[in-house]
Structures are given as structure tokens and as C-alpha cells.
Amino acid sequence: MQTALIYVTAENLDRYTDRCAEYCNRLGLRLAAVVVDELDGGRWPEVAQMLMDGTVQVVVVADRDELPPDRTPRVDVVAEQRRRLGTGRSTCRPRLIR
Fold first, then answer.
1. 56, 65, 68: which is closest to 31 by C-alpha?
2. How far apart are CA 92 and CA 89, in angstroms?
3. What Cα–Cα distance (Å) separates residue 69 from each residue in 17, 56, 61, 76?
4. How confident is residue 88, by pLDDT bands cut at 50, 70 and 90?
5. Selected residue with higher pLDDT from 64 and 75
6. Are 42 and 48 in contact (CB under 8 A)?
7. Mean pLDDT over residues 51-61, rounded?
8. Which contacts (CB < 8 Å, 24+ apart) does range 89-98 have?
9. What confidence tens digit (pLDDT) does each residue in 2-41 have?
10. Sign of the C-alpha dihedral computed for residues 17, 20, 22 and 24 taken in this order
């Protein structure tokens, strides 16, 4: 069973926590913590460290807008970006790593 944490801003704590906990339950994720952050994303490094050291394997957020935009590490989903940016053209050719 994978372990998850819920990441939520203080502003949306009451709005999103139950929804995220229900999601964890449906997927069979063990809920380890709820990390409540301010809009500045100051606690994101703590969340990233928990991912890197294996304390949790999954971070659950109710809405992508809850995440700090400048967070690292992060995962970007190209299909979502194309919808937001309105483009499908690549601007660079990355090196392929196998």
C-alpha cells in the first residue's frame, strides 16, 4: 500500500481536505499527513523531502492551483500545458536519455 499526504492551502483547508481524504480512501492509499501551507508555498520543500526520502509516495491535491507555481521538484503534463498555452509546437529538441 502506498503512503500519501494531502497538500492544501490554509485558505482551502475546509473546502478540500475531506475530498482529498475520500480520494485516498478510494485508491487504497494510506494517509500519513495533511500539510497545510500558505499561498507562498513555503512548506513545499518539506513535502518534496518527504517524497525524496520515501516517507510518502503520493502527494494529493484537490486542484492544481493549490500547488506553488515555482515548486521543485514538479511534474508538468504536456496535454494540460497545451490546453493552457494554446500551442502544440516544441521550441527545443531535448537530448534523449535511455
1. 56
2. 9
3. 20, 21, 13, 11
4. low
5. 64
6. no
7. 97
8. none
9. 999 999 999 999 999 999 999 999 999 999 999 999 999 9
10. negative
With a CB cutoff of 8 Å and minimum separation 6, the contacts of 14 are: none
Residue with cell 493552457: 84
DSSP 16-84: HHHHHHHHHHHHTPEEEEEEEE-TT-TTHHHHHHHHHTTS-SEEE-S-GGGS-TT-SS----HHHHHHH
Q: Which pLDDT band holds residue 87 (cuts at 50, 70, 90)?
A: low
The pTM for the full model equals: 0.79
Compute, in degrees rounded to 10, the torsion defined by CA atoms 21, 23, 24, 27: 160
CA–CA gap between residue 9 and residue 14 (Å, rounded): 10
Is the CATH number of domain 3-85 3.40.50? yes
